[in-house]
Amino acid sequence: MLSLSCAVQTYEWGKIGEESEVMQLAVSGCHTLELDPSSPFAELWMGTHPSGPSVLREEQETYLSKYISEYPKCLGSASREAFGMSLPFLFKVLSIRKALSIQAHPTKEHAQLLHRQRPDLYKDPNHKPELAIALTPFEALLAFRPSVEIAAFVQ
Prior knowledge:
Layout: E1 4-5, E2 7-9, E3 15-16, H1 21-30, E4 40-41, E5 43-46, E6 55-56, H2 64-70, H3 77-83, E7 91-94, H4 108-117, H5 147-154
Antiparallel strand pairs: 1-6, 2-5, 3-4, 5-7
Pathway: Nucleotide-sugar biosynthesis; GDP-alpha-D-mannose biosynthesis; alpha-D-mannose 1-phosphate from D-fructose 6-phosphate: step 1/2
Keywords: Isomerase, Metal-binding, Zinc
Domain Phosphomannose isomerase type I catalytic: 1-146
């Protein structure tokens, strides 16, 4: 098993300091940098995403993506065949203090096109299917009403 130092995202909507499960996890083993306890700690990222790649704790200079390229069997043959030499997901722990901004994720094909056209904005060619498992009480809104219902409300 590999022990990772994971990226911490301090988005404005995250819980502040030690109130945040993200900060608690980061301090307890995933993170090696100094963390400002007055900051909002929103997300802990575990994966190979270029905006927040995980690093092997035993070898602080080794990114998880480098380890995968050096030891491709760690992904398993089915994953390598389907997704190549990268993780097909970004595992996140969220610690939410207030409502998040609305998000819209492209299809796989559109994500690939956007990444080719604007790699500075679209860091990877993957779509963003999401799965949420609430560890604490949680409320969420998902999708939109059918357009016919929205039009009826407007009238």
